[in-house]
Specification:
Order of helices and strands: HEEHHEEEEEEEHHEEEEEEEHHEEE
Number of strands: 19
Radius of gyration: 18 Å
Strand content: 25-35%
Number of helices: 7
Low-confidence stretches: none
CATH architecture: 4-Layer Sandwich
CATH superfamily: Penicillin V Acylase, Chain A
CATH class: Alpha Beta
Shape: globular
Strand order of the largest sheet: 1-2-5-6-7-8-11-12-13
């Protein structure tokens, strides 16, 4: 193992940690294959309302020791199109203000669907480069499935989270309470269609983990269906759409929020191409609406990804390295 993981005893988790690879050698982008169960049933069986709740729960479920501090949030853009072969593609930019510390995560958890997607370990309060520096305790890395910001499963179901700004969602209908990333994990592991994803969303009470921030989710499947799931006054709304950025799409809230310029550009492209785009076209579109790096405190595109829901593979560009795209398949 490259680094110590003092509190990890599960041999499958240790095997997973051994697969961590620094892709460019600069500590900004890693890959990891995850073979152990991600303990979703235990996570979903307990209420968690906030980041602090979630930190305590993950620690109890994975290692029984206190984990590092966590934070959650996302800006971003996402849209769908079809290529000339009829493959369903999803384009996704993940934008945030912190430095890039991403992991291309592939999971093969017993009893769950295989998945592939991008996780942001900056929210774990670990540091870029720490996963393979040979000295940092990387116990927290066993929880990486719960840092997925976007991903796809073997059935061709995609989900990604995008940030909104409004009063925090805190549903209280008597169902089990979950936060943003545990919902992403539940959908990735268990939903094959947008309809099944909606069933999962309606089975839990959503809790936004950060005050004065809300989130909506873009979900698409291999049939070409795509929907946005967003909460207004603690009510879940589901909207059919092929495009989303960072403003509300629900009636009465429409266009409250940001990302309108990015939305307009992508909408024009989709209309012009009549919803038909090749993978290269998708990546070019993501690059066109990407947020520049180097502006301190301002949003920066950490990764651009094109998910092929038909071929079950994803092409990823990290840190604006558009000439160095990497393509990965589900395990």
């Amino acid at each position: 193992m490259n680094n110590p993981a003092r509190y990890v005893k599960d041999p499958q988790l240790l095997k997973s940690l051994d697969t961590i690879t620094d892709v460019f050698g600069d500590g900004s982008f890693y890959t990891m294959d995850y073979f152990s169960g991600d303990r979703l049933d235990r996570i979903l069986s307990e209420d968690h309302h906030s980041v602090d709740d979630f930190k305590v729960l993950l620690a109890k479920v994975f290692v029984t020791e206190e984990m590092n501090r966590m934070d959650f949030g996302a800006c971003c853009s996402a849209f769908t199109a079809k290529d000339k072969r009829g493959h369903v593609l999803v384009g996704r930019n993940f934008d945030f203000t912190h430095p890039l510390f991403g992991i291309l995560l592939r999971t093969a958890s017993p009893g769950e669907l295989k998945t592939i997607g991008m996780a942001d370990m900056s929210f774990s309060d670990m540091k870029p480069g720490s996963l393979t520096d040979g000295k940092t305790d990387i116990t927290t890395a066993v929880t990486v499935p719960y840092f997925n910001m976007d991903g796809m499963n073997e059935a061709g179901l995609f989900i990604g989270v995008l940030q909104l700004r409004k009063a925090t969602t805190a549903q209280d209908s008597g169902k089990r309470k979950v936060i943003t990333t545990s919902m992403i994990r539940a959908v990735l592991d268990r939903a094959k269609t947008v309809e099944e994803a909606e069933e999962i969303f309606r089975s839990y009470d959503m809790q936004s983990p950060i005050a004065n921030n809300d989130y909506h989710f873009f979900v698409a499947d291999a049939s070409g269906a795509s929907r946005v799931f967003e909460y207004v006054d603690n009510v879940l709304n589901v909207i059919d759409t092929d495009l989303v950025t960072n403003f509300y799409l629900s009636k009465g809230m429409r266009k409250k929020g940001g990302g309108k310029e990015r939305y307009a550009v992508l909408k024009e492209l989709l209309n012009y191409r009549e919803g038909r785009m090749e993978k290269k076209d998708m990546m070019d579109a993501l690059r066109l609406v990407s947020q520049p790096s180097g502006s301190k405190g301002k949003s920066n595109t950490l990764w651009s990804a094109v998910y092929d829901l038909t071929a079950k593979e994803v092409t990823v560009v990290t840190g604006h390295r558009y000439s160095k795209a990497k393509t990965y398949k589900i395990l």
